[in-house]
Design a protein that fits this description.
single chain, rod-shaped
Length: 136
Amino acid sequence: MSETTIPEVDIASSPRSASSQQEALELRLLDAEQKNLDLIKKESGQRFWIRWIAVGVGVAVILAMSALLTHLVHEVFWGPFLVASPAFAVAMLVAPITSITAITVALFVGAFRKFDDKDMETLGNGAAGAFNVFKS
């Protein structure tokens, strides 16, 4: 029989170290995925609480403005008698109702749909349209 020589194997490039490098890379990838999932869960929890805070603030605004509206109605109207000018009486009734509507709509849109840049344009168009209605 002939004698064969076995070449020396470099330990750094052995299949064993390559598999351990692969395992280390997979471990880092799994850790990164877990951290990403944790952040996604935290984000959804924050959205949940922000939405409930917005709902609470909206309800508080509605109640406060309703109380103001009730107080103003009782101050301006005493039974069948109107104690202020008609323009003042209408303004005192319209202002809280408009405020209730505007603030709660803005809060709910911001909390549930998020604000976009185009919302400011839409708001501007709505305000201009309302101004034109009252202007004519």
